Amino acid sequence: MYDYNPYVQDYAFPPLKLAQAYVPLQKYVSIYPPEEAIKKGTVFPELDMPYVGEKMR
Amino acid sequence: MDGNQISMLKKIMEIEFTCIDLNLYLDTHPEDQKALQDYNYYSNQLSMLKQQYEQFYGPLMVFGHSQSQYPWKWVDDPWPWEIEY
Amino acid sequence: MWVYEKKLQYPAKVCKPDVKMAKYLIAQYGGPDGELAAALRYQTQRFVMPTGKAKAVLTDIATEELAHLEIIATLVFKLLKGVPVEILKREGLGEYYTEHDRGLFYADTTGMLWTAAYIQAKGDAIADLHEDMAAEEKARATYEHLINLTDDPSVKDTLRFLREREIVHFQRFGETLVQVREYMESKKFF
After folding, report:
1. Start and end of every Protein CotJB domain (chain B) (predicted)?
2. Residues B10, B53: contact at Cβ < 8 Å?
3. What is the ipTM of this complex?
4. Domain locations in chain B?
5. CB contact under 8 A, A25 and C178
6. Taking CA B51 as the corner, what is the angle to CA B50 and CA B53, rounded to the nearest 5 degrees?
7. Across the interface, do A41 and C160 touch by the CB < 8 Å criterion?
8. Residue B24, class by beta-carbon neighbours within 10 Å (0-12 exposed, 13-18 middle, 19+ buried)?
9. CB–CB of B34 and A34 under 8 A?
10. pLDDT confidence band for A13 (50 / 70 / 90)
């Protein structure tokens, strides 16, 4: 599992159905400044999910 | 490649990357006003940075999207995989 | 139509040549879960997506994957630069060198040629988007393996960037799946 990001919000879903996959629709909050964003690989703090290494599994 | 050229190139990478990530977000959120505002702001910055860069160091794009001094600078070395960052 | 920009999306640096790592990285160039597979998969699936948003997502991510292909090529190019043939042979790249010298070719680490069998375009948007989500996860996992395989901090840094991009792509494909399904469901009530 990825480290849980405190930036995550409550995402609304339509009524869920069987046999269907769902991914929540991201909400825009704020973005990293460009020099930080490129280092992280995304402008979005809520999608920033760094790899912590093999030993964490 | 001199230090100034590399630092200008890195700045362009940063701003363009911001535009790319916002672009992908807008593809699934076309009605997000704030995101679009931010995209346009950074896109404008990107144009200015590229213009400045190209004045000194030659075209970044081809097929008419950038202009070139004489002689045609598009063919110049180094190419992106040869640059020492 | 595609236009090329003469710069990498992200800097690709290596601290020193490393033949073994170059060999592993070729997997992300011409292997089953590599950037070529990603770019060509999304590029060809986009034609029959039912919504403008889905066409945009597939087109734009395909374009970004080509930029990533270039980054992988740059890493391999730099990792093999100036390495003498004896070392290439010793480190397991003798067969590759026979065919390609220190050039870049569309094969995996075992020399198996890239094939369109690595991708699928079912023409069914729901099926294709699930394949795309799976592809992004497989690429993410492969990047994690590659990060574990190297000690070179510069190479690790570039790989971390590429890995994070796969996570963002997964999110976009997932959103697209939900949106395409909603669209197709809304069409049923005519």
Report:
1. 8-82
2. no
3. 0.97
4. 3-82
5. yes
6. 60
7. yes
8. buried
9. no
10. confident
Long-range pairs for C130-134: beta carbons < 8 A, 24 or more residues apart: C130/A21, C130/C177, C131/C41, C131/C45, C132/C41, C132/C42, C132/C45, C132/C58, C132/C169, C132/C173, C133/A21, C133/A23, C133/C170, C133/C173, C133/C174, C133/C177
**Whole-number Å distance between alpha carbons of B57 and B70:** 12
Q: Which two tokens stand for residue A5?
A: 């990001």
Q: Is A23 close to C175, i.e. CB distance below 8 A?
A: yes
Best C2, C7, C152 member to test B by mutation, with max B CBs in 10 Å, is: C7
> Over the stretch B19-71, which tens digit does the pLDDT of each residue have?
999 999 999 999 999 999 999 999 999 999 999 999 999 999 999 999 999 99
CATH class of this structure's domain C19-189: mainly alpha
Least Cα distance to C51 among B20, A11, B30 occurs for B30
Chain A, window 16-55: residues with a beta carbon less than 8 angstroms from a chain B beta carbon: 25-26, 28, 31, 34-35, 37-38, 42-44
Which residue has 């945009």 as its token pair?
Answer: C56
Count CB atoms within 10 A of the CB of residue B11. Answer: 17
Structure tokens at A14: 């339509």
**Cα–Cα distances in Å, from C46 out to A26, C133, C155, C166?**
22, 14, 32, 18
Q: How far apart are CA C85 and CA B7, in angstroms?
A: 35
- d(Cα A11, Cα C86) in Å, to the nearest integer? 57
